[in-house]
Design a protein that fits this description.
Blueprint (H helix, E strand, L loop, with lengths): L11 E4 L5 E5 L10 E4 L2 H9 L6 H15 L8 H15 L7 H15 L6 H31 L7 E4 L14 H10 L5 E5 L6 H12 L4 E4 L4 H6 L5 E4 L3 E3 L4 E4 L2 H10 L4 E4 L5 E2 L16 H4 L18 E4 L6 E4 L2 E3 L4 H8 L2
Parallel strand pairs: 4-5, 4-7, 5-6, 7-10, 8-11, 10-13
Antiparallel strand pairs: 1-2, 2-3, 8-9, 9-12, 13-14
Helix pairs in contact: 1-2, 2-3, 2-4, 2-5, 3-4, 4-5, 5-6
The structure holds 5-S-methyl-1-O-phosphono-5-thio-D-ribulose.
5-S-methyl-1-O-phosphono-5-thio-D-ribulose binds next to α2 and β9.
Length: about 350
């Protein structure tokens, strides 16, 4: 029987008109506290992205688009040059918040290009049009996620065990998610899946967010530690892996949350298909391969003092890359809003994404 997947509270929401503000779920507090924060300055949007109050590549892109609308509110009067100057400043500033998810840069570039096309229309009209453009970025993301779900769900069979890493759900997008959209769409088409969610050290997006989100939406889910994934595969509990991505290079190499690469290796060793689901806004065709994707390094305290408790000796050296790159050869297929890219070759990527 097809299941209706329950709707989810908005991850990001614009409140008001041109002088409005950006409201978002503070994801650092989940799953024990469900609270919103409101960003009325671009500094607050930057901090929210940096500290992962909003996170996940598509959601970061949407937050950045709305962040531009918040940032240009400081321009009063009718000086259009001042508005466009401020827009540049705001975009440069927001682009320093996090380096890996290309959706951030994609959204900022889109807002800048859009504004450039409006030159001569006056401050009020440009500001209003930019807000409309940010709404379009959010709405298109919603539509892309639905399409990803539709395409991806055809790859899964009723009764399968599936594994995912990090959170690529509604919390990481405008709504519905990318990897999780595949599970939601499969469930909606009547397939019963059992999801294994990796907890995703060090910031536990899998335990705190994916497990919560799947539970909220009525999907059968079991939480495992990252170190258990290979054993779970060996025991025959998993028949497919689906993850999201933060940036996909022209050859199909995909950057995603740290730990994804080792899951792909384990899946390969067990003959389990490994799928990556992401919208076209996550592809960076300017990079020939994943070697060129900038990998964010985060505060060592995330490893030594996870969630406030010290778990390593004082003064220990730490390396804390937030993402890794899974080579295209380990990816059975890429799923985007236009369809399924299989096999993953530079030609097939270019073909699927051609304008
Ligand atoms: O550091 P995060 O939580 O922003 O990392 C998020 C991920 O790695 C997601 O898997 C990715 O952005 C895809 S979200 C649809």
């Amino acid at each position: 029987m097809p299941t209706e997947i329950s709707s989810h509270p908005a991850t990001l929401e614009w409140i008001g008109g041109v002088e409005g503000k950006l409201r978002m779920i503070d994801q650092t507090l989940l799953p024990t506290e469900f609270k919103h924060i409101e960003c009325e300055t671009v500094e607050q949007v930057w901090e929210a992205i940096k500290m992962l109050r909003v996170r996940g590549a598509p959601a970061i892109g949407v937050a950045a688009a709305y962040g531009v609308c918040v940032g240009i509110q400081t321009v009063s009067g009718a000086d259009e040059a001042a508005l466009l100057g401020r827009l540049d400043e705001v975009c440069s500033y927001l682009s320093t918040s996090r380096p890996t998810a290309v959706n951030l840069f994609w959204a900022l570039e889109r807002m800048k290009t859009f504004a450039a096309g409006l030159a001569g229309n006056g401050v009020q009209e440009i500001s209003a049009a930019l807000l409309e453009e940010a709404h379009r970025v959010a709405e298109e993301d919603r539509q892309m996620c639905r399409a990803i779900g539709r395409h991806g769900s055809t790859l899964l069979n009723d009764g399968q065990g599936v594994l995912t890493h990090c959170n690529a759900g509604g919390l990481a997008t405008s709504d519905y998610g990318t990897a999780l959209a595949v599970f939601f769409a499969a469930a909606e088409s009547g397939k019963t899946l059992h999801v294994y969610a990796d907890e995703t050290r060090p910031l536990l997006q899998g335990a705190r967010l994916t497990a919560w989100e799947l539970q909220q939406r009525g999907i059968d889910v079991t939480l495992i530690c990252d170190s258990m994934a290979a054993q779970v595969m060996r025991e025959g509990r998993v028949q497919a892996v689906v993850t999201g991505a933060d940036r996909i290079a022209a050859n199909g190499d995909a950057a995603n949350k740290i730990g994804t690469y080792q899951v792909a290796l384990a899946a390969h060793a067990h003959g389990i298909p490994f799928y990556v689901a992401a919208p076209s806004s996550t592809f960076d065709l300017s990079l020939a391969s994943g070697d060129q994707i900038p990998i964010e390094e985060r505060d060592p305290q995330e490893v030594t003092h996870g969630f406030g408790k010290q778990t390593a000796p004082e003064g220990i050296q730490v390396y804390n890359p937030a993402f890794d790159v899974t080579p295209a050869k380990l990816i059975k297929a890429l799923i985007c809003e236009h369809g399924v890219i299989e096999p993953v070759t530079p030609e097939n990527v270019a073909d699927m994404l051609k304008p």
